[in-house]
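Entry 14. Structure prediction run on the chain below.
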Amino acid sequence: MKEKIKKISNEMKNSTKTAIVAAFSFLIGLSWKDVITEYVDKITQLSPIQGKLISAFFITIVCVLGILLTTKILEVKNETN
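Output returned:
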């Protein structure tokens, strides 16, 4: 019984940690959105490709890298005995 309670407690902690990291990540993304969009728009004024397309591509790459780093850093190690 104690093992089940401990397992549920660990799962709750992991879920809470994930939710908090996601919330902070969302806030960071919102704060950088306008900066990145303005910068890309200035760079691509003469380009035939719209700035929003390049901005979306750039943000996608940065976010995927951030997700990979976050999951690697916050990886939960299994405690097998």
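The longest helix spans residues 2-43.
Filed with the rest of this week's runs.
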